Amino acid sequence: MITESQTSLTTDDDHPREACGVFGIYTPDREAARLTFFGLYALQHRGQESAGIATSDGQRACLHKGMGLVSQVFTEENLAPLTGHLAIGHTRYSTTGSSNLRNAQPYLIETLHGPLAVAHNGNLTNALDLRQLLLTRGVGLSSTTDSELITQILAAPPESWNGNGNGGNGKHPSEDRWIERIQALMRIAQGAYSLVLLTANAVYAVRDPFGMRPLCLGRVGDGYVVASETCALGTIGAEFVRQIEPGEIVRLDDRGVTSVVGLEAQARALCVFEYVYFARPDSDLEGQVIHRVRQQMGQQLAREVPVEADIVVPVPDSAIPAAIGYSLQSGIPFTEGLIKNRYIGRTFIQPDDALRKQGVRLKFNALGANLRGKRVILVDDSIVRGNTARPLVQLLRDGGATEVHVRVSSPPVRHPCFMGVDMATYTDLIAHRLKVDEIAQHIGADSLGYLSLEGMLDAIQATTGQRLGYCTACFSGNYPIDIPEWLFADSREKLIFEGVWR
Predict the structure, then answer these.
(1) Which residue, 213, 343, 380, 438, has fewest beta-carbon neighbours within 10 Å?
(2) pLDDT in tens, 375-407
(3) Which helix (H) or strand (E) holds 54?
(4) Which domain holds residue 442?
(5) Which pLDDT score is estimated for 101?
(6) pLDDT at residue 156, as a whole number
(7) Cβ distance 280 to 231 under 8 Å?
(8) Strand locations in 199-355, DSSP E?
């Protein structure tokens, strides 16, 4: 039951892309697939290239996945066969593995202990070593993703290669063997991962020992749910219980919630870009609503890089909270200056050459009535490649703005990410190549100012009331884990040849 649909991006967005969203549910009294569909709908912002759902009724596992948005992949007809009280789901943006159907998730395979389905958010930094490990053992691979490596290692962990097919000591029920296998995986997997796994009778949630990618637990009726963000819980009427802890394994089944230490937690390193851009503004992370944190970032930005202007305008939709914060702190009125066409980001119809040259004008229109004769502060949450900032500045000028001052509610992105964010090479990053004043000149802005790294962390602490560990590698170059030297290669062709990067 795997289908493929056509999708296309109409514009080259400058924001970083998160790897994906994951969702898992045990619900004894409702349709797990239907709840998973709506949970994935709420996580659509985390990945728009493919979507999939795997289910189990305790006897049989089913899968449907395809290319495109959740609403394009699933219909009443293909949801109907996905029966059962257990389900996991996935929305994908490719970071490891190219964007095609064979790399869509979840993966579903048959093992010695029954069906196993896996959905993964993150990147393994030792994927090349693990791939070689599997290939030398004669394991056939059908995709280029590290997520398939995880699936195959869970099916036959290294401990089982000595002839003991159990992958454990054989003294526990089959579901407990899965915990042993997950622990075996965690001992050899390096990098970022939040996983949801489906077996015949349970759903498992797993978070890496650094907690780089988010994962939370909720309760719905007599069942339980896990998801990348709390916004997915609210969508299906679930109640938030807590965050899954770094290094933790959680099992959901008819016994309720079982928590096991998978691997001892390390120094926390939650990706700070969850606060900057990835997470939905209505999600709760570490006890605070993301919208409030971003608003505080905007206020800090106004304190650090003020400028005289008439109006504050956000890049919709992601920079709205920061722009509100900048306006509150500076006293400069907040207003709309760019109107976003929210339905053109994905389409089955390719734009012709003339439309393609319109670039961001396909996605935004300038609101001339608000811009004409005004000095504008344009607030964005990040500038990664610099592809869209210049046309956005020009769009505001064409709309009548006399000055355009760009303010960014995060520090300059100067270093690549290898833990699940699409920022894979130094040459991609405009702030690595150019100084701030050179970037301002490049994008045509009258001035450009970024939030400092310390200011960003202070803003997070001011709203959450605590300063837990964060991964700031894309800003600081300080990686929480050792990165293999070959991953820093700037040649995508080399990485494609090695079959482990898109």
Answers:
(1) 343
(2) 999 999 999 988 899 999 999 999 999 999 999
(3) strand 50-56
(4) 288-465
(5) 81
(6) 86
(7) yes
(8) 203-207, 216-220, 223-227, 239-243, 248-253, 256-261, 270-271, 284-285, 288-289, 311-314, 338-340, 346-347
Closest CA to 290 of 319, 248, 328: 319
- Does residue 485 sit within a domain? no
Tokens of 439: 């970037």
Does residue 304 form part of some domain?
yes
C-alpha to C-alpha distance for 147 and 131, rounded to whole angstroms:
11
| Cα Rg of the chain (Å, integer) | 23
Burial 431-457 (b: 16+ CB within 10 A, else e): beebeeeebbeebbbbbbbbbbeebbb
Does the CA dihedral 365-371-372-373 come out positive or negative? negative
pLDDT for 67: 93
8 Å CB contact between 150 and 229 = no
Instruction: Kindly provide the residue ranges of all beta strands, DSSP E only, lying in 178-265, ordered along the sequence.
Output: 194-198, 203-207, 216-220, 223-227, 239-243, 248-253, 256-261
| Cα distance between residue 450 and residue 443, in whole Å | 14
Q: Are residues 254 and 386 in the same domain?
A: no
The whole-number pLDDT of residue 287 equals 87
365 and 246 both lie in a single domain: no
Two tokens, residue 69: 């948005």
What is the rounded CA–CA span in Å between residue 346 and residue 351?
11
Phi, psi of 205 (to 5 degrees): -120, 135
pLDDT tens for each residue of 236-265: 999 999 999 999 999 999 999 999 999 999
CB–CB of 106/145 below 8 Å?
A: no
What's the whole-number mean pLDDT along residues 447-456?
Answer: 98
DSSP for 10-36, please give it.
SS---S--B-EEEEEEE-TTS-HHHHH
Are residues 236 and 341 located together in one domain of the fold?
A: no
| Contact predicate 174/113, CB 8 Å | yes
Contact 465, 423 (CB under 8 A): no
Asked if the structure places residue 183 within a domain, the reply is yes
Q: Which of 21-30, 54-63, 169-178 has the lowest mean pLDDT?
A: 169-178
Question: Which CATH number belongs to the domain containing residue 414 in this structure?
Answer: 3.40.50.2020
Provide DSSP, 461-492.
Answer: HHHHS----EE-HHHH---SS---GGGG---H
**Could you tell me whether strands 311-314 and 375-380 are parallel, antiparallel, or unpaired per DSSP bridges?**
parallel
The answer to whether 474 is a known catalytic residue is no
Q: The CATH number of the domain where 243 resides is what?
A: 3.60.20.10
Q: Give the pair of three-digit tokens for residue 145.
A: 């993703």
Which residue in 112, 459, 420 sits closest to 275, CA to CA? 459
Contact 65, 106 (CB under 8 A): yes
Q: Which residue in 20, 62, 271, 471 is the catalytic one? A: 20
What is the reported pLDDT for 10?
39
Is the pLDDT at 36 greater than 70? The verdict is yes
Please check whether residue 318 lies inside any domain of the structure.
yes
